[in-house]
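Our platform keeps sequence and structure together, in a single record for each protein. Such a record has a labelled line for the sequence and another for the backbone structure tokens. This encoding replaces a full spatial description with a residue-level series of whole-number codes. Below, we set out a record of this kind in full and without editing:
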Amino acid sequence: MYTETEYPPGFLDEAIDQAETARVTGTPERTLEAYRCRGGGPRYIKIGRRVRYIRRDVFAWLKRHRVEASDAA
């Protein structure tokens, strides 16, 4: 994964839509919708009927769910 300094300026603070968030996370759009209702997904912004995710928040959510492989395989 990139470090913050390797991204273009403003890249991490961009608001992305649900389709892009689904692509970045590998999570179906319907699952993102369920997360918004039940909790557990990335933080989001709602403006009227539109939902947007801040790329930095999506990456932070992914990082929190990362599991390190164990040697007990």
User: Anything to note?
Assistant: Helices lie at 18-25, 29-38, 55-64. Strands lie at 15-16, 45-47, 50-54.
